[in-house]
Design a protein that fits this description.
The protein has one domain: Rossmann fold (3-Layer(aba) Sandwich), CATH 3.40.50. By secondary structure, it is α/β, with parallel strands linked by helices. The mean pLDDT is 96. The protein is globular and about 45 Å long.
């Protein structure tokens, strides 16, 4: 699905847990709507009915989930999401604003679970018939600062959030490596900056795509 072949615009937010993706997605949706464009606000995992079931397993299953099973579950969620929600919205000309996509699989299942990053990426590309966003915003934050934000939230940690500091350090490095490899798709922002500044930077980059 080449960017030029679809009337819509697809933007994904990536980053570690606690980086502020949801806040930025919400601010961006308000701004895009104010430009007069229809939006689809969605997320992975859990953007579809099937995805909600998958999300429950990958985030809250109490027993063991083998790393390859976890990778396949995220890929299954992604396949359903792109086929039934994202592609149709892009075909209608909507602006799709999404929390997390395949870069999360490369970072968490690849670097975090120590699976082959290339194989994980290829799995997602197979699942989605090669769908890639027009813009990916990476909200980069030191995992220790992110942990403080999550602690302040007072919500129980899910299976991934509960991983140790090394895991989250590998995830962060992987995201930065992915962004460096595809500078034309990625916008990397320091997530410690004020939310309004970050929102302005995202809007400036997206304006050229609308
Ligand atoms: P979130 O919706 O709160 O960001 O939680 C989703 C969690 O799932 C988060 O810890 C990152 C993780 N995740 C993966 O490990 N692989 C993936 O492909 C995706 C989309 C998320």
């Amino acid at each position: 699905m080449a960017a030029a072949a679809r009337p819509g615009v697809w933007i994904t937010f990536e980053g570690g847990d606690g980086a502020g993706k949801t806040t930025q997605a919400t601010l961006l949706e308000e701004w895009v709507r104010a430009q007069g464009r229809e939006t689809l606000r969605t997320r992975e995992p859990g953007g579809t009915e099937v995805g909600v079931l998958v999300r429950d397993i990958v985030l809250y299953h109490r027993g063991e989930v083998a790393p390859r099973a976890e990778a396949l579950l995220y890929a299954a969620d992604r396949a359903q999401h792109v086929a039934t929600l994202v592609r149709p919205a892009l075909a209608r000309g909507e602006v799709v604003i999404q929390d997390r996509y395949l870069d999360s699989s490369v970072a968490y299942q690849g670097a975090g679970r120590v699976l082959d990053a290339g194989e994980i990426r290829d799995l997602s590309l197979w699942a989605t018939e090669g769908a890639l966003p027009d813009l990916t915003v990476l909200l980069d934050l030191d995992p220790a600062a992110a942990r403080e934000r999550l602690d302040a939230d007072d919500k129980p940690f899910d299976r991934l959030e509960a991983e140790e500091a090394d895991f989250h350090a590998r995830v962060r490095e992987s995201f930065l490596g992915l962004a460096a490899a595809e500078p034309e798709r990625f916008l990397v922002l320091d997530a410690a900056r004020p939310a309004a500044d970050l929102a302005a930077a995202v809007q400036a980059r997206l304006a050229a795509l609308l």
